[in-house]
Amino acid sequence: MKPLIPNTYVLNNKYLQSILSPSTDIIDYNFSSDQIHKLNLLQILRPDVYFNKNLSDDEFYEISKNYYQKLINKDIIYKSEDEYFLYRIDSKDHSQTGLISLLNIQDYLNNNIKPHEKILVSKGKERAEQLSKVKFQLCPIYLFYDDQNIDLDLDIHHEKKPIIKFKSGNYTHSIYKTKTDFSGINFKELYIADGHHRIEGFAQLDVEKDTKFLAIIFPKSKCSNMAYDRSVKFPQDYKKDSFISSLEKYFHVEELRYHENIDRFFVIYFQGRFIKIDLKKEFSSNGADCIDFAEFILKEILNIEDETNDERVEFVPPTLGTDYLINQVDTGISDISTIMRPVSMDLVIDYSKNKKFMPPKATWFDPKPLDGLFFYNIIE
Question: Are 47 and 338 in contact (CB under 8 A)?
Answer without folding.
Answer: no
